[in-house]
Amino acid sequence: MSSLNLDDFTDLIERPDGGVRRDAEARRERQIVPPGSLGRLDDLGEWLSAAQSAVPVRPI
């Protein structure tokens, strides 16, 4: 059995797009819902948008 070097493995993972995350944040700020009223869901939505490289988020 071979061992898995996690440092090498993490280099293979594509990081979420920071620009798309900023776009998602700007879109959320234009919504009728007051900023921060959804708590962690605001952050999760921005992260998911960046991970999908899509604004708005695609259904999962």
Précis, in short:
With 60 residues, the protein is mainly α. The chain is 52% helix and 0% strand. It has a domain at 24-60.
Classify the beta-strand content into a percent band.
Answer: under 5%
Low-confidence stretches: none
Any idea what the radius of gyration is?
A: 15 Å
Instruction: Write down the overall mean pLDDT.
Output: 85
Q: Helix count, per DSSP? A: 3
Distance between the termini: 35 Å
- Proportion of residues in helical segments: 40-55%
Series of secondary-structure elements, N-terminal to C-terminal: HHH
Give the tally of β-strands.
Answer: 0
Q: Please give the largest β-sheet.
A: none
Shape: elongated
Structural class: mainly alpha
Description:
With 60 residues, this protein is mainly α. The protein has a domain of 37 residues. It contains 3 helices and no strands. Helix 2 packs across helix 3. The radius of gyration is 15 Å and the shape is elongated. The model has no long low-confidence stretch (mean pLDDT 85).
Features:
60 residues, mainly alpha, elongated
List the helices and strands and how they pair.
Layout: H1 6-11, H2 18-29, H3 40-52
Helix pairs in contact: 2-3
